[in-house]
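Minutes, project check-in
Item: structure for the 295-residue chain
Input as provided by the requester:
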Amino acid sequence: MYSSRLVLAVVELAARASLSPREFESFLMDRTRQAAGRGAELVLFPAYLGMFLLAAGWRFDDDLDVTREAIGNRLRWAYLEACARVAQAAGVYLAPGSILEPCPGGWWHACYLFSPDGAMLARRTQLHVNPCEAARGIMGGNAVETVATPWGKVGFVLGSDARYPEVARILALQGAWLLLAPAAHPAPGNPWQQLAGLWVQAQSNQLCAAEACLQGELGGVSLGGRSVVYAPNEVTPDATGVLARADEEGLLVVPLYPDLGAGVRRWRVFDLMQAGLYARDLPPAYEAADRGGSE
């Protein structure tokens, strides 16, 4: 039986670098406990949080390969172990942003979900990469899967995936009622470009979505955008589809109700879609793209 209400916390942060593992865990613990103290049961952090563990001065564009051994052999495990301990100590479900993981030929951009007992419930990778990310060696993943929680199924939308409608649609068809998006938008933040991503997915799939944004500079890249919690227009007081928006670095704590998706069931929204076409046409299209568009 699913819980009828989720208290979600969305943490907006200024980027940092050169945190030791102990400093990183203390930093994460402070903000997670602050959220838990305000009643949060699930806490979402921005993208690239794990990269705070790298030494100051590294750059996305110049020397990611120099960091490969450090991330693969030491920092990734320091990040994951700290996240597990923080989730357990704070007694919350923790979505601690993301980190770059070495993989054959490049990098995965990966995010996670931890349970209150410190177990890793899910690892998800970004599926689509933009030209800048591809130039840095970041590679797209190949799986779209929801995660079971006490409030129902949720899905992750990481990085550029917010602008590819099939990602959110597949998650919604799998039963997700909430999308979690660890984000790091280029600065200066453009609210209209940001709305063209996750807000559109919330409306077109009639679900809730939360976007935690990173601010400042990390790895030589300036970041902006504002953290937002979205819902279908019809259930927001001013019909904007926005439940809450951050005005500065800080914390959004928002109660969400999984039965917001009742409209999808009542009006058979998904029953009227040609979902079979997705299974028939999308895999060959992606396979052709992987071969360089030869077909």
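Outcome recorded: The first strand starts at residue 6 and ends at 14.
No further action items on this chain.
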